[in-house]
């Protein structure tokens, strides 16, 4: 059974940086797709970025391009989200997710979710 454990997050001032990690376990040949989503107060869960274990090619939503970078370490089965130049509108609970549809932006295509980690950006 695939399990995801997130770490990182916290409180940062606008313009600052944070790094999130997502350690995957419980599989040898498991989900091919990994993604980061976020859910702000009173908002729906939205796609942030995605990557696959095989290619390592990252994709990101337009609002974070040039600021956020998703990457993966196959040996550690860990996916990272480096967030730079953070803005107050980036405030949300960030979730790591695993699925089998590469680069899907739909939460419904992801089978396993982490517990979420809070990111708060103050102005």
- The radius of gyration is 13 Å
Mean pLDDT: 94
Which regions are unreliable across 5 or more consecutive residues at pLDDT < 50? none
Residue fraction in strands? over 45%
Strand tally is 11
> N- to C-terminal separation?
40 Å
Shape: globular
**What summary fits the major beta sheet?**
7 strands, mixed
Q: Give the fraction of residues assigned to helices.
A: under 10%
Q: State the secondary-structure class.
A: mainly beta
Walk me through the structure.
By secondary structure, the chain is an all-beta fold. The protein has strands spanning 3-8, 10-13, 18-25, 33-39, 46-52, 59-60, 68-73, 78-83, 92-99, 110-113, 117-122. Strands 2, 4, 5, 6, 9, 10 and 11 form a 7-stranded mixed β-sheet that branches. It has a 4-stranded antiparallel β-sheet with strand order 1-3-8-7, with no helix packed on it. The mean pLDDT is 94.
Secondary structure elements and their pairing?
Layout (H helix, E strand, L loop, with lengths): L2 E6 L1 E4 L4 E8 L7 E7 L6 E7 L6 E2 L7 E6 L4 E6 L8 E8 L10 E4 L3 E6 L1
Parallel strand pairs: 2-11
Antiparallel strand pairs: 1-3, 3-8, 4-5, 4-9, 5-6, 7-8, 9-10, 9-11
Which keywords apply here?
123 residues; mainly beta; seven-stranded mixed sheet; four-stranded antiparallel sheet; 11 strands
Give a short synopsis of this structure.
The chain has 123 residues and is mainly beta.
